[in-house]
Sequence to fold (270 residues):
Amino acid sequence: MAAELQWLFEYEAVVEDQNEQARDGAIDEGFDTVLSRITGLRRLPDTEVIYAAQQNAGGYVLETRYATKSVNLDSIGMVEQLLLVIRFNESAIYDLIRRAELPIWSTYRPSVLLLLEQSSRGVLGAFDEALARFEIQAVAQRRGIEVFLPLMDVFDRQQIPTGSVALEFWGSVELLRQRYGADLVAMVRVHRQQFDSRRVWLRFVGSRMSEVPASAIADAAGSEFGLTTVVDQIADNLANQYSISSSAESSLYLTVDGISDIRSYKAMMD
Fold:
């Protein structure tokens, strides 16, 4: 069951110091990021309404504060970062989206377990390659989705040995989905083509997204492909499935059985 993501209207920017220029730049970046999260759009349209709002991004800020965070990168070690945390006004953002007639994606969003098979290296785990994990989480935060990796402990490796994602072992994938409490599983595999090129495929498992067939999301030379592309495509697919038009009029019709007289009707209305 999808959970509400409380942080969608909040943006954390890494800044070098607390000067006004860095603050204004962070607010501009955060404004575009929050709009992208709530609309589900990877790129915002170039319209007069959006442009005017971008020129006054500070007017949509509810509060700001500074904080520090330690980040552990394998090749660098522990890094201390200064953050500017910006909270945007939800009502003002929703009002802008309606005026701009952009889609709205509910803050209740499915969690996604990412099974990313890296050729002979197997599935990327939660304790593998810090830079890769950092990139995945950074893009997921930017797009407003919850993506996490499996532990790849003994149990996981028994369920999804090398080749399982490519062969789409549904039973094993469902066991992992239940183990991690994920709403969906995104299976990403790399298909070898001619001249040592690769095609990256994405398939969802779980809920109605299972009806969406596998789709090619990237082509790359050698064994390299962008993790940013993978997470962006996951977010695009989810937004296409779950966002609604902010300008569309809709009606709700209810059918009530068992109303046979005026007394029953009055009891229902009360």
In short: The first helix runs from residue 20 to 39. The chain is about 35% helix and 25% strand.
